[in-house]
Design a protein that fits this description.
Number of domains: 1
Subunit structure: Component of the nuclear pore complex (NPC).
Number of strands: 0
Keywords: Membrane, mRNA transport, Nuclear pore complex, Nucleus, Protein transport, Translocation, Transport
Order of helices and strands: HHHHHHHHH
Largest sheet: none
Radius of gyration: 17 Å
GO cellular component, one term: nuclear pore outer ring
Subcellular location: Nucleus, Nuclear pore complex
Organism: Hibiscus syriacus (Rose of Sharon)
Length: 171
């Protein structure tokens, strides 16, 4: 990969990125260690790697934190755990290394947070940020490529709109 970067071979780097996309959908703690090792091998020039721009240590650690806290939420933990998951999600969405093609899967994975029963765990500004990211996706026309179920986009939109209404009433 280093030599492909040096040669600026975008085609082959993008093919490798597609492979990482499919592998990345089932990331475990052990595979995170392998990814971090790969990042160290790539060095600081990995920014030039086309679609591999998400392979940055800050993105991977944020993604790992998000997945762990989200798992705790699905295991039935408290509202505080849900707020931690929200903070990780917001961090990921604000991270410039997070590719737009990850936005909808991240939001779809977060449906339980967006539909939190007791009270909204996202405030108005956080919800607006997520709505803006979803709008960015629509404008970039990246929604068509998604491997998610067809109702994913509508589920996320409805959950964000509902959360926004609840957050406005809460504040």
């Amino acid at each position: 990969m280093f030599w492909l970067q040096q040669a600026r071979d975008e085609y082959r780097l993008n093919r490798i990125a597609q492979l990482f996309d499919s592998v990345g959908k089932a990331i475990s703690d052990e595979s995170f260690k392998q990814w971090e090792g790969l990042i160290q091998l790539l060095g600081s020039d990995s920014k030039t790697a086309g679609r591999l721009d998400f392979l940055h240590k800050d993105f991977l650690s944020s993604y790992r934190d998000f997945k762990k806290s989200l798992q705790h939420v699905y295991d039935g933990k408290t509202t505080d755990t849900a707020r931690q998951a929200v903070e990780s999600l917001i961090s990921l969405m604000k991270n410039p290394s997070t590719p737009q093609r990850f936005y909808l899967p991240l939001l779809y994975d977060s449906l339980k947070l967006l539909n939190w029963k007791d009270r909204p765990v996202l405030n108005v500004s956080q919800t607006n940020l997520l709505l803006t990211k979803l709008q960015d996706l629509s404008m970039a026309r990246l929604l068509i490529e998604s491997e998610l179920p067809p109702e994913a986009l509508n589920s996320v939109r409805l959950a964000l709109a509902t959360n926004l209404g609840h957050a406005i009433l809460e504040e």
